Amino acid sequence: MLIDFHFHAFSDKIAERAIGVLRDNCGVEPLTDGTLDMALRLFDEWGVDKAVLLPIATKPAQQRIINDWAVSVRSNRVISFGTVHPDAEDLFEEIHRIKSLGLKGYKLHPDYQGFFINESRLEPMLSELEAMEMPVVIHAGFDPVSPELVHCTPQAAADMISRHPKLKVVLAHMGGNDLWEDSYEHLCGLGGEVYLDTAYSYDVPDDLMLKMIRRHGSERVLFASDCPWQSSVNMVRKLEKIGLTGKELDNIFWQNALRLLGNALDKP
Ligand SMILES: [Zn+2]
To answer: Which H helix or E strand runs over 4?
Structure first.
């Protein structure tokens, strides 16, 4: 089984515009037209059985409408997370609504949502998310939308985690896009419920990738592509060639995801 823990798609109505804006922001050619249909067609080609959809509200007013859409498209195959915006007036209400709607976790994007992960104003929100006992995926490291300023460095993430030891946190991009040495030093090996995902991590040097996974433990690394920005199959091939054992690959490809999502998923 293969579970991709990190991909993006948009409602058909806004897909074309959204993917165009993101392409211009990041200068990377997307692999899909932004629609869920096209992502699912690629997952067929790539052998991905299930995938975690991570929506992002870039404005507070978008949370509810995006979360309702995420509910409407979930399936046996698409595991939808919810999005919350720290500046929303109904932030706490939405944190609870997401759980009651049956969405499986939360996504935060510090660069698109304008906050630093270890700011004190976030503490009430992070405590509430910790109490929900569902995974929280956080964009970590460099993002082209904010090239001069990284809003979630590995050091800042470690600082935040020290105050929220029970938070089931998934630090995307191996703990810090383009900051992998810092991630190795400050995040890999942290105990508790700290996970790293492999989204958009194709450029991590192979020997460093292996070192990071071994230090952190393959039980807490999640296979992820960041589709439409990178392909799942390329990440599978990378992980298969860096020297991991079959047991470690099974953990990363699906077992950890299944455990984190509550073992409640139907078999594909
Ligand atoms: Zn992403």
So the answer is: strand 3-7
Is the pLDDT score of 265 beyond 80? no
Boundaries of domain holding 199: 3-260
The structural domain count of the chain equals: 1
Instruction: Find the 121 Cα to ligand 1 centroid distance in Å.
Output: 24
Residue 229 within any structural domain of the chain = yes
**The pTM of the whole model exceeds 0.85:** yes
- Name which of 201, 241, 268, 234 is nearest 31 in CA terms: 234
Kindly state whether residue 198 falls inside one of the protein's structural domains.
Answer: yes
Mean pLDDT of 233-253: 98
What is the CA(224)–ligand 1 centre distance, in A? Answer: 9
CA 6 – ligand 1 centroid, Å? 6
Report residue 147's pLDDT band, with 50, 70 and 90 as the boundaries: confident
